[in-house]
Amino acid sequence: VHQSKLDFFCKLGYGKQDICKVLENLGQEALEDDVLKELIRMGSKPQVLESQAQPSSLKLVARGSCSTTPASKWLSEDESDSSSYLRPIVIDGSNVAMSHGNKEVFSCWGIQLAVDWFRERGHTYIKVFVPLWRKEPPRQDSPITDQHILEELEKQSILVYTPSRKVKGKRVVCYDDRYIVKVAYEKDGVIVSNDHYRDLQNENPEWKWFIEQRLLMYSFVSNRFMPPDDPLGRHGPSLNNFLSKKPVPPEPKWQPCPYGKKCTYGNKCKFYHPERQHQAQLSVADELRAKIKVPLNLGKEEKHNCSP
Fold it and tell me: Which intervals hold the zinc fingers (C3H1-type) (predicted)?
């Protein structure tokens, strides 16, 4: 009994010494309410309340001092993580490079243009997947330009090589598209590619929905990476909402009524009437009823008065 009461009041924040003193004075069989009253009478306060009551001297920091409190560190981390509302980006490196090279040359400069575009928007999680054999020297059947860009992006932990090896002189290549879709799906991000990944859509219904909703197409216009402003069509979200975790709903656009002033629907009309901003939008039938209702009521009152 003593241990259970001790644990109970310790959870409330009271010190063990004060609790033991009160239990010695009142006895082990004292009620919890009596123990609590005695603790209050002694002036004992929970540690949480004492810490709140004491003014924190760490709030004011002298100008020019380098010391930071834990709270300020947490704030700085939250402020620095400004990309928390932006989705992770997973780029199909082969698709982007070949598109920039007009499907003839593997242009690494196209990958750099795409990465820079998302960096300028504030995205911090950017991954580019490229097959490992692209590290090899270029050949006539697979020309590569600006190959040093791949090394620079790999040092920045942006580029990821999908594995490949040679068996009896033949190259065995892992399916890099599966890496791209899997990482983007797990990170709840966006896939940057002009490929539709139809074979992967047929494998997994969840991947099918994800690819349909999170695939960002693009174009290169004079060495300029340009994704569309409406990635999912005219009636879909804007590019900013598509790339953000918390999309902002668009402002409602009111369509003007095609009948204009001749409209007889009144307040039941679903369209916008600029001429009725400061008027009660009543239909013609409701206006007539409102006008007829007054004399009818007056007539009924006269009849009731005359009947006696």
Answer: 251-276
